[in-house]
């Protein structure tokens, strides 16, 4: 249990799409979930992204477009500035 990774908000954003895809290693996934549990900003972004991904996936089998990712990232940065 000693090698648990500390996840920052930046790490979370980098790993989020893999997390949603379910393609992360167990250890990283656990760290991501621990971060989500205590970081409301990341939770909001994750929740929005997951919904967006589900909509995209139900329409066509396409990955999340970069433009959508950028928009979510910008929204998160706005949140941080407000905090
Ligand atoms: Zn965070």
Question: How would you describe this structure in keywords?
Answer:
76% helix; 0% strand; 4 helices; 83 residues; mainly alpha; binds zinc ion
Explain what you see.
This protein is mostly helical. The chain is 76% helix and 0% strand. The longest helix is centred in the middle third of the chain and has 20 residues, at 40-59. The protein binds zinc ion. Residues 9, 12, 35, 39, 41-42 line the site of zinc ion.
Strand fraction equals under 5%
- What oligomerization state is this entry in? single chain
Number of strands: 0
What is the succession of H and E elements? HHHH
Query: What are the bound molecules?
Result: zinc ion
Overall outline: globular
Count of distinct structural domains:
1
Tally of DSSP helical segments = 4
| Arithmetic mean pLDDT | 85
Given the helix and strand composition, which structural class is it? Answer: mainly alpha
Q: Note the main sheet.
A: none
- Outline the low-pLDDT stretches: none
Q: What separation lies between the terminal Cα atoms? A: 33 Å
**Over the alpha carbons, how many angstroms does the gyration radius reach?**
13 Å
- Helical fraction equals over 70%
């Amino acid at each position: 249990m000693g090698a648990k990774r500390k996840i920052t908000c930046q790490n979370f954003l980098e790993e989020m799409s893999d997390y949603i895809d379910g393609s992360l290693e167990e250890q990283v996934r656990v760290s991501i979930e621990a971060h989500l549990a205590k970081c409301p900003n990341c939770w909001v972004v994750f929740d929005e992204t997951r919904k967006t991904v589900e909509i995209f996936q139900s329409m066509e089998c396409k990955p999340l477009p970069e433009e959508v990712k950028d928009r979510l990232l910008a929204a998160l940065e706005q949140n941080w500035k407000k905090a």
